Amino acid sequence: MDTKEWNEKFISYRKVIKKLKNEINRDLKIVGLSMQHAPYLLLLENNEKLKIKELTKLSDNDPALTTRVLKTLSDKNLIARTCDNVRKCQIFLTKSGKEVVLYLNNLLKAMRNKIEKEMGGEDHEKFLIAMLN
Hints:
It is a single chain. By secondary structure, the protein is mainly alpha-helical. Helices cover 70% and strands 9% of the residues. It has a single domain (3-132), classed as Arc Repressor Mutant, subunit A (Orthogonal Bundle), CATH 1.10.10.10. The protein has a 3-stranded antiparallel sheet. The protein is elongated. The protein starts with a helix and ends with a helix. It contains 6 helices and 3 strands. The protein has helices at 3-29, 38-47, 52-59, 63-75, 95-119, 123-132, and strands at residues 49-50, 79-83, 89-93.
């Protein structure tokens, strides 16, 4: 693939990513959240309880963003904390948080189905793997 062809593909991929992000943001706005909050909710669903440092590392975000997102999720009663002391808190989803994660999973499933339909077969998996590596 020559440089011109790669550049065109790169621009197309960027448009696809932007469109996916916009769709997720639009749909999450209904529950007062954005794409920024989604990784934290999904990480808590997958791990039940996590410390702030673990969430920061697993989400691949900086500590300040993690703190802001967790405050928003806490204010919306989507997460709660159990603490042994000030520094040993574990964060988990509340019942409301689990309902929002179910909604989020349905959005992501619909998006995966749409991508699979458009790309056909296993091509969508190859696309996603290539984008993540």
